[in-house]
Write a structure and sequence with these properties.
Helix content is about 45%, strand content about 15%. With about 200 residues, the protein is an alpha+beta fold. The chain has a four-stranded antiparallel sheet. α2 packs across α7 and α3 runs antiparallel to α4 (about 70-80). The two termini are about 20 Å apart.
């Protein structure tokens, strides 16, 4: 059985896409990011939580503040990428549930009254949305360079607040010269899928 998605789109989103390590200086516009968000916001999350929050780092001053919190191997590419996004989980996402899950508004208090429950749900569901975001960047014809090599607490203190947990930093732009490392191996279907 073949996939419904066109093979060229499969290549764009998955087979040919990789983490970019260099970028051209072509700007990434707010309109592009809005188009990406307007597509990926439809990806599913539990209770339609939608806890992902995106902080776009555009100004040179903000870029400098971010780069100092990146691991050494991630600093140069973060300082030169056309756009950098900090993806975080909003641990107070439940406040939006009456709007986002209107057919069951009591879910806000029934399931998410306690902070530990919210943090676990926010982390999982924002990570799902972060994956959708990366696919959306690819769908826009751009390259994404997601990174978790950073000082998470430093990024939180510098850019967020106690209600937001940073998940990753993503460099975004058109791929530059020698942008890709060689493709790493993947597990085979029968190594991953078990039928019971």
């Amino acid at each position: 059985m073949s996939l419904a998605l066109d093979p060229a789109a499969q290549d764009l989103l998955f087979r040919e896409a990789r983490t970019a390590n260099t970028f051209t200086d072509e700007p990434v516009t707010d309109e592009q990011i809005q188009a990406i968000y307007d597509l990926v916001k439809f990806g599913p999350t539990a209770f339609n939580q939608s806890p992902l929050r995106i902080t776009l780092v555009r100004s040179p001053e903000a870029r400098e503040r971010l780069v100092k919190h990146m691991a050494e191997g991630n600093q140069a590419k973060t300082s030169t990428a056309p756009l950098v996004a900090i993806l975080s989980a909003d641990n107070e996402f439940h406040e939006e549930l009456p709007q986002l899950f209107p057919h069951f508004p009591q879910a806000k208090d029934l399931f998410f009254a306690e902070r530990p429950a919210r943090e676990g749900a926010a982390s999982l569901n924002a990570a799902l949305q972060a994956a959708y975001f990366i696919i959306g960047v690819r769908a826009a014809g751009l390259a994404a360079g997601p990174m978790t090599g950073l000082d998470f607490e430093g990024v939180r203190k510098e850019f967020l607040d106690d209600d937001h947990t940073p998940l990753m930093v993503v460099n975004i732009g058109k791929p530059g010269e020698d942008a890709w490392f060689p493709r790493s191996p993947r597990l085979a279907y029968d190594e991953v899928v078990t039928t019971v």
